[in-house]
Design a protein that fits this description.
Layout: H1 8-101, H2 115-127, H3 132-147, H4 151-158, H5 161-164, H6 169-185, H7 189-201, H8 208-222, H9 225-236, H10 239-243, H11 246-262
Helix pairs in contact: 1-2, 2-3, 3-4, 3-6, 4-6, 6-7, 6-8, 7-8, 8-9, 9-11
Length: 264
């Protein structure tokens, strides 16, 4: 009976203690749930970071492999071109040794046999139409083909390069001047003059005087001597050509020489 009788203060303390226990009992699941979510979020951040690093490494590795393969391909391309060039040099050396062994073979028409290297340059050019080395190979092969008067073959080798080299002014000039020359050799003067007209209008072309000189030469061969003479006189009297770049001065001088040679 004595134990059952408790003071109000003791009863209040018991109530507080019980409430504290109840509160702690009620709060523990909430704390544990929050901790689990935080751990899960941390895991997600960790794996997101791991995934990001993996992607970056994969991209970096891919770029490295691509760069290495591209460099390797370029090295192989240069090596192949140099091997053909070495064959060309060997053909020249063989020709010189042949002339030394028999000086009577040294006639105005005598020339090295570049058929093997020309064939390889052709094959290289067709296989590498997107490469500047392929363009150079095409020009070298076409030069030999023109020497052999194989104009149609040279033209077929060069024409596919016209579109691919539009952004390369110097290459455009070389290709179109070569095409104009071999077209003229076949009597195709109008298409040849069209090639030169394109070059005269080509932006940033530093070789317009040379192109105009060739135009005058083709006009003369076509029989339009008056137009050829007028153009040559303009080139010879061009004050900028007389005091400009070395190539321009040579064009003015050459134009004057052609005027005198043709008696125009």
């Amino acid at each position: 009976m004595f134990n059952s009788m408790r003071s109000p203060q003791q009863s209040w303390l018991d109530t507080v203690q019980q409430g504290g226990v109840a509160a702690s009992t009620m709060q523990r699941p909430i704390f544990e749930e929050t901790s689990a979510k935080a751990i899960q979020a941390a895991h997600r951040r960790k794996w997101t970071l791991v995934g990001f690093v993996a992607v970056v490494l994969a991209i970096g590795t891919g770029l490295f492999v691509y760069s290495w393969q591209k460099s390797k391909a370029e090295r192989l391309l240069v090596q192949s071109y140099l091997e053909i060039d070495a064959l060309y040099v060997a053909e020249n050396q063989a020709f010189e040794e042949k002339l030394k062994a028999d000086p009577q073979l040294n006639t105005p028409d005598a020339r090295p046999d570049h058929a093997p290297s020309t064939k390889k340059f052709e094959e290289f050019a067709r296989a590498n139409v997107k490469s500047p080395l392929g363009w150079q190979a095409a020009l070298r092969a076409s030069s030999e083909l023109i020497e052999q008067q194989k104009y149609a073959e040279a033209q077929a080798l060069l024409e596919p390069l016209l579109i691919r080299t539009l952004k390369h002014v110097v290459v455009q000039v070389r290709i179109r001047k070569t095409l104009a020359g071999l077209m003229a050799e076949q009597g195709q003067f109008d298409p040849a003059l069209e090639q030169l007209s394109f070059l005269e209008k080509l932006p940033d072309n530093p070789m317009v005087p040379e192109v105009r000189l060739m135009r005058a030469q083709l006009l003369y061969k076509k029989g339009q001597k008056d137009q050829a003479a007028q153009l040559l006189k303009e080139l010879a009297a061009d004050s900028t050509a007389a005091v400009g770049e070395g190539s321009a001065r040579s064009v003015a001088t050459e134009a004057a020489l052609w005027l005198g040679y043709w008696g125009l």
